[in-house]
């Protein structure tokens, strides 16, 4: 059984804008999946369906084989979403207080909250900045703080929306190292991005969205020749046999 499965998901916003059409995709445990597409392809809209921030017009999302509809509080503990703009996710007056926000809202005992905060900050190398003001952090550190806030909820799946946007080279390196560390620790990851050169070499699989449709899914190397057809900048690398690729349109 897949950890998460999207079944024939369609999203039509009020006014008739069709954002997603019949998307079907599964994510396995421990997998690092890259979800690629140009701006406006539907990547962020799809990501926000994975923990119920948006609800589909038709179709469904399943977590561990059960639909997420009707159990969103539980699902949001299991599927963590890191937004593109980290400032939108930071609410605490200190780094530690920000990470504590989620566990405190679960009603956990103070001792367990402190344990989760310390564990999450250690995982992202921010323990030394526990009492710092989040506003004074660098872009890369803010992104790591947002990841720590998600980790404190102890999710099974972490979805990161454009995690490299706005970061300088040191910030990109910080976040890439963090993502690879999370993968080594057994987390399932979905990386939503158009900046494939930063992550694709480490991905288990890639899925490509175009105009709200999932057009291909498969081994990253097998999809390289397809990317430019859908307006996505192709990173350097060798193609693999097309037999490892699944065509969806």
Automatic annotation (TrEMBL):
Pfam families: ABC_tran (PF00005). InterPro entries: AAA+_ATPase, ABC_transporter-like_ATP-bd, ABC_transporter-like_CS, ABC_transpr_CbiO/EcfA_su, ECF_ABC_transporter_ATP-bd, P-loop_NTPase. Keywords: ATP-binding, Cell membrane, Membrane, Nucleotide-binding, Translocase, Transport. It comes from the Bacteria. GO terms for molecular function: ATP binding; ATP hydrolysis activity; ATPase-coupled transmembrane transporter activity. Residues 4-236 form the ABC transporter domain. Belongs to the ABC transporter superfamily. This is Biotin transport system ATP-binding protein. It comes from Hydrogenispora ethanolica.
């Amino acid at each position: 059984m897949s950890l998460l499965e999207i079944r024939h998901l369609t999203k039509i916003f009020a006014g008739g804008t069709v954002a997603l059409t019949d998307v079907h995709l599964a994510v396995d445990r421990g997998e690092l999946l890259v979800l690629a597409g140009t701006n406006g392809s539907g990547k962020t809209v799809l990501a926000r369906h994975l923990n119920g921030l948006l609800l589909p017009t038709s179709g469904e999302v399943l977590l561990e084989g059960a639909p997420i509809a009707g159990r969103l509080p539980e699902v949001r503990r299991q599927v963590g979403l890191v937004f593109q703009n980290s400032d939108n996710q930071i609410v605490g007056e200190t780094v530690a207080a920000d990470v504590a926000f989620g566990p405190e809202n679960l009603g956990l005992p103070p001792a367990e909250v402190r344990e989760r905060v310390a564990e999450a900050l250690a995982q992202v190398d921010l323990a030394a900045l526990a009492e710092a003001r989040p506003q004074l952090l660098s872009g890369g550190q803010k992104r790591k703080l947002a990841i720590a806030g998600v980790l404190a909820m102890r999710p099974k799946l972490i979805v990161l929306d454009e995690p490299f946007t706005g970061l300088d080279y040191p910030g990109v390196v910080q976040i890439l190292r963090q993502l690879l560390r999370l993968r080594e620790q057994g987390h399932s990851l979905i990386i939503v991005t158009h900046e494939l050169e930063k992550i694709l070499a480490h991905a288990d699989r890639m899925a490509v969205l175009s105009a709200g449709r999932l057009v291909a899914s498969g081994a990253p190397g097998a999809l390289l020749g397809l990317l430019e057809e859908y307006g996505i900048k192709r990173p350097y690398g060798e193609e693999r046999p097309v037999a490892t690729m699944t065509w969806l349109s």
